[in-house]
Amino acid sequence: MRYRALTAGQVHDIVEVLASGSEFGVDAVALERGEGEAIDEGPLYNVLDVFRNELLEGAIGDVEQFEGRLAAALHAWFTSIPIEVLDDPGFWRYLAVRHFWWFTSHRESEPISKGNVKNLVDASRPAEHIPLRLFLRTRAIDVNGDVSLAGALPQSTDFWRSHITRVRLGSAPVVARAFAEAKLADSKRQLTTNPLRRVARRLNRTWANTNLDLYGPEDAQLLIEEVIEQET
User: How many C-beta atoms lie closer than 10 Å to residue 1's C-beta?
Assistant: First the structure.
């Protein structure tokens, strides 16, 4: 499949222009890789137009939930792309500056204003790179195609980045989903920042003697309940 990509040098030059408030014709310099039919970016445009309008109208509410809803809305498009394309950092660099700069510049305005933009666009740190972390969030909780939970948790930046997408737990969707469901159902406020971190550390230590990616839904729920009881 044919797709567009950018080198690290290209994307760093482009983002300097974008961060200054100017526009850049990314398509004119993008590289074409692969063979055969080109990736259809039409569905991507359609989803992004809806969410960009929400942002322009000031109607996004909790920005972390907005990011999660955006991730869920894009999940089908991301998963339609061949794995060899998803494995190419150049593809993610292209997406970052061609399609997602509007959100990156809003979501990460402070690091951009300080000139700390490299990690946001070059895909070397997946949890910092906007389009890649959107995909990683939904992939981490994808059980039978239901990823709506990605946008359900309010004020959850630390939960997703520190305890799901940056750690091995994100590779065990059934357990990661059970953890997210427990956080969402936490009406007693047990899983505040410090207890949440203890639970997450305990879960990740479990990998030492257990294959969490083999857990079924019931076993995952029991594991999460047990760890929460012990750590809160």
Answer: 14
User: Closest Cα to residue 72, out of 136, 120, 123, 127?
Assistant: 136
Between CA 191 and CA 202 the distance in angstroms is 14
- CA dist 104 and 93 (Å) reads 12
What does the pLDDT profile of the chain (232 residues) look like in tens digits?
999 999 999 999 999 899 888 999 999 999 999 999 999 999 999 999 999 999 999 878 899 999 999 999 999 999 999 999 999 999 999 999 999 999 999 888 887 877 777 778 888 888 889 999 999 999 999 999 999 999 999 889 999 999 999 999 999 999 999 999 999 998 778 889 999 999 999 999 998 888 998 999 999 999 999 999 999 8
**Residue 36: CB atoms within 10 Å:** 7
Tokens of 208: 């030492």
- Entry pTM: 0.93
- Cα–Cα distance between 4 and 2 in angstroms, integer? 7
Distance CA 198, CA 201 (A): 5
Alpha carbon 203 to its chain centroid, in Å, reads 21
